[in-house]
Amino acid sequence: MKRNEFIRRLRAGLKGMTPADVEEIVADYEAHFEAAAEDGRSEEEVSDALGNPSRMARELRLEAGIKSWESERTPSSAWSVILAFLGLATIDILVLLPIVLPVLGVFFGLMVATVSVFIAGGFVLVAGPFSGFPGGALVAVLAGLGLMAAAVAAGALLGIVGTWLVNAAKWFGRLHYRLIEPAIRGETRGDVA
Protein backbone atom coordinates (compact mmCIF):
# COMPACT_ATOMS: atom_id res chain seq x y z
CA MET A 1 0.00 0.00 0.00
CA LYS A 2 1.28 3.46 -0.87
CA ARG A 3 1.86 6.24 1.66
CA ASN A 4 -1.20 8.29 0.69
CA GLU A 5 -3.53 5.29 0.99
CA PHE A 6 -2.04 4.35 4.38
CA ILE A 7 -2.48 7.91 5.72
CA ARG A 8 -6.00 8.17 4.26
CA ARG A 9 -7.08 4.93 5.98
CA LEU A 10 -5.40 5.99 9.24
CA ARG A 11 -7.23 9.36 9.17
CA ALA A 12 -10.54 7.62 8.44
CA GLY A 13 -10.03 5.32 11.43
CA LEU A 14 -9.21 8.26 13.72
CA LYS A 15 -12.49 10.09 13.03
CA GLY A 16 -14.05 11.29 16.25
CA MET A 17 -10.75 12.22 17.89
CA THR A 18 -9.77 15.86 18.28
CA PRO A 19 -8.26 17.36 15.11
CA ALA A 20 -5.06 18.22 17.01
CA ASP A 21 -4.61 14.61 18.14
CA VAL A 22 -5.29 13.30 14.63
CA GLU A 23 -2.74 15.69 13.13
CA GLU A 24 -0.14 14.73 15.74
CA ILE A 25 -0.63 11.02 15.07
CA VAL A 26 -0.60 11.48 11.30
CA ALA A 27 2.57 13.60 11.55
CA ASP A 28 4.27 10.76 13.44
CA TYR A 29 3.42 8.26 10.71
CA GLU A 30 4.39 10.73 7.98
CA ALA A 31 7.77 10.96 9.73
CA HIS A 32 8.09 7.16 9.55
CA PHE A 33 7.60 7.28 5.79
CA GLU A 34 10.05 10.19 5.38
CA ALA A 35 12.75 8.50 7.48
CA ALA A 36 12.32 5.27 5.54
CA ALA A 37 12.55 7.11 2.21
CA GLU A 38 15.88 8.61 3.34
CA ASP A 39 17.06 5.05 4.11
CA GLY A 40 16.02 3.93 0.64
CA ARG A 41 13.00 1.87 1.68
CA SER A 42 9.86 1.88 -0.45
CA GLU A 43 6.46 3.11 0.72
CA GLU A 44 5.10 -0.43 0.44
CA GLU A 45 7.83 -1.77 2.76
CA VAL A 46 7.05 0.89 5.35
CA SER A 47 3.30 0.34 5.22
CA ASP A 48 3.81 -3.43 5.50
CA ALA A 49 6.08 -2.93 8.52
CA LEU A 50 3.62 -0.57 10.19
CA GLY A 51 0.67 -2.91 9.71
CA ASN A 52 -3.02 -2.37 9.05
CA PRO A 53 -3.81 1.36 9.44
CA SER A 54 -7.45 0.71 10.35
CA ARG A 55 -6.39 -1.64 13.14
CA MET A 56 -3.78 0.87 14.33
CA ALA A 57 -6.41 3.60 14.41
CA ARG A 58 -8.66 1.47 16.64
CA GLU A 59 -5.75 0.83 18.99
CA LEU A 60 -4.84 4.52 19.06
CA ARG A 61 -8.47 5.44 19.78
CA LEU A 62 -8.51 2.99 22.70
CA GLU A 63 -5.28 4.44 24.09
CA ALA A 64 -6.65 7.99 23.73
CA GLY A 65 -9.87 6.94 25.48
CA ILE A 66 -7.89 5.31 28.29
CA LYS A 67 -5.76 8.44 28.75
CA SER A 68 -8.91 10.55 28.84
CA TRP A 69 -10.46 8.22 31.43
CA GLU A 70 -7.31 8.21 33.56
CA SER A 71 -7.04 12.02 33.55
CA GLU A 72 -10.73 12.84 33.93
CA ARG A 73 -13.22 10.24 35.11
CA THR A 74 -16.41 11.49 33.55
CA PRO A 75 -19.31 9.67 31.89
CA SER A 76 -18.17 10.91 28.47
CA SER A 77 -14.62 9.65 28.96
CA ALA A 78 -16.00 6.31 30.22
CA TRP A 79 -18.19 6.09 27.15
CA SER A 80 -15.20 6.81 24.89
CA VAL A 81 -13.24 3.95 26.50
CA ILE A 82 -16.18 1.57 26.10
CA LEU A 83 -16.74 2.51 22.44
CA ALA A 84 -13.03 2.31 21.63
CA PHE A 85 -12.82 -1.04 23.40
CA LEU A 86 -15.76 -2.38 21.41
CA GLY A 87 -14.15 -1.08 18.22
CA LEU A 88 -10.89 -2.84 19.03
CA ALA A 89 -12.58 -6.04 20.09
CA THR A 90 -14.69 -6.43 16.96
CA ILE A 91 -13.20 -9.88 16.51
CA ASP A 92 -14.46 -10.92 19.93
CA ILE A 93 -17.79 -9.14 19.74
CA LEU A 94 -19.80 -12.32 19.31
CA VAL A 95 -18.26 -13.70 22.49
CA LEU A 96 -18.37 -10.45 24.47
CA LEU A 97 -21.82 -9.21 23.49
CA PRO A 98 -23.75 -11.84 25.49
CA ILE A 99 -21.69 -10.89 28.56
CA VAL A 100 -21.42 -7.12 28.17
CA LEU A 101 -25.04 -6.34 27.22
CA PRO A 102 -26.66 -8.01 30.26
CA VAL A 103 -24.12 -6.39 32.59
CA LEU A 104 -24.81 -2.97 31.08
CA GLY A 105 -28.57 -3.64 31.17
CA VAL A 106 -28.51 -4.58 34.86
CA PHE A 107 -26.30 -1.58 35.64
CA PHE A 108 -28.65 0.78 33.79
CA GLY A 109 -31.71 -0.79 35.48
CA LEU A 110 -30.16 -0.33 38.91
CA MET A 111 -29.37 3.30 38.10
CA VAL A 112 -32.99 3.90 37.06
CA ALA A 113 -34.22 2.18 40.23
CA THR A 114 -31.89 4.31 42.34
CA VAL A 115 -33.19 7.52 40.79
CA SER A 116 -36.77 6.29 41.26
CA VAL A 117 -36.20 5.55 44.96
CA PHE A 118 -34.67 9.00 45.41
CA ILE A 119 -37.68 10.66 43.77
CA ALA A 120 -40.08 8.51 45.84
CA GLY A 121 -38.19 9.52 48.99
CA GLY A 122 -38.58 13.18 48.06
CA PHE A 123 -42.28 12.65 47.46
CA VAL A 124 -42.69 10.94 50.88
CA LEU A 125 -40.65 13.73 52.53
CA VAL A 126 -42.75 16.52 51.03
CA ALA A 127 -46.24 15.01 50.77
CA GLY A 128 -46.14 12.46 53.61
CA PRO A 129 -46.73 14.86 56.52
CA PHE A 130 -49.84 16.26 54.82
CA SER A 131 -51.36 12.98 53.64
CA GLY A 132 -51.96 11.18 56.92
CA PHE A 133 -48.82 9.04 56.71
CA PRO A 134 -48.96 6.08 59.14
CA GLY A 135 -47.09 7.08 62.29
CA GLY A 136 -47.44 10.80 61.77
CA ALA A 137 -45.57 13.64 60.14
CA LEU A 138 -42.23 12.93 61.82
CA VAL A 139 -42.23 9.33 60.58
CA ALA A 140 -43.03 10.57 57.04
CA VAL A 141 -40.13 13.04 57.12
CA LEU A 142 -37.72 10.42 58.47
CA ALA A 143 -38.94 7.79 55.98
CA GLY A 144 -38.49 10.23 53.09
CA LEU A 145 -35.00 11.17 54.27
CA GLY A 146 -34.14 7.48 54.75
CA LEU A 147 -35.26 6.60 51.21
CA MET A 148 -33.30 9.50 49.76
CA ALA A 149 -30.18 8.60 51.77
CA ALA A 150 -30.45 4.96 50.68
CA ALA A 151 -30.73 6.06 47.06
CA VAL A 152 -27.66 8.31 47.39
CA ALA A 153 -25.69 5.43 48.97
CA ALA A 154 -26.82 3.04 46.21
CA GLY A 155 -25.86 5.64 43.59
CA ALA A 156 -22.40 5.97 45.14
CA LEU A 157 -21.97 2.19 45.12
CA LEU A 158 -23.12 2.04 41.50
CA GLY A 159 -20.59 4.77 40.70
CA ILE A 160 -17.83 2.62 42.19
CA VAL A 161 -19.07 -0.44 40.29
CA GLY A 162 -19.26 1.63 37.09
CA THR A 163 -15.65 2.73 37.59
CA TRP A 164 -14.65 -0.92 38.05
CA LEU A 165 -16.49 -1.89 34.86
CA VAL A 166 -14.75 0.82 32.83
CA ASN A 167 -11.38 -0.17 34.32
CA ALA A 168 -12.10 -3.81 33.46
CA ALA A 169 -12.85 -2.82 29.85
CA LYS A 170 -9.62 -0.79 29.81
CA TRP A 171 -7.63 -3.73 31.19
CA PHE A 172 -9.18 -6.18 28.74
CA GLY A 173 -8.53 -3.82 25.83
CA ARG A 174 -4.85 -3.51 26.72
CA LEU A 175 -4.59 -7.26 27.33
CA HIS A 176 -6.33 -7.93 24.03
CA TYR A 177 -3.86 -5.69 22.23
CA ARG A 178 -0.82 -7.27 23.93
CA LEU A 179 -2.00 -10.75 22.97
CA ILE A 180 -2.64 -10.01 19.32
CA GLU A 181 0.18 -7.52 18.70
CA PRO A 182 2.69 -10.25 17.73
CA ALA A 183 0.17 -11.70 15.27
CA ILE A 184 -0.36 -8.27 13.72
CA ARG A 185 3.37 -7.76 13.32
CA GLY A 186 3.76 -11.25 11.81
CA GLU A 187 5.89 -12.62 14.64
CA THR A 188 5.80 -16.23 15.72
CA ARG A 189 7.30 -17.88 18.78
CA GLY A 190 10.35 -18.87 16.75
CA ASP A 191 10.90 -15.30 15.47
CA VAL A 192 10.93 -13.64 18.89
CA ALA A 193 14.36 -13.61 20.52
TrEMBL record:
Name of the protein in question: DUF1700 domain-containing protein
Record keywords, A-Z: Membrane, Transmembrane, Transmembrane helix
Listed transmembrane segments: 77-100, 106-126, 138-166
Gene source species: Novosphingobium flavum
Highest taxon above the source species: Bacteria
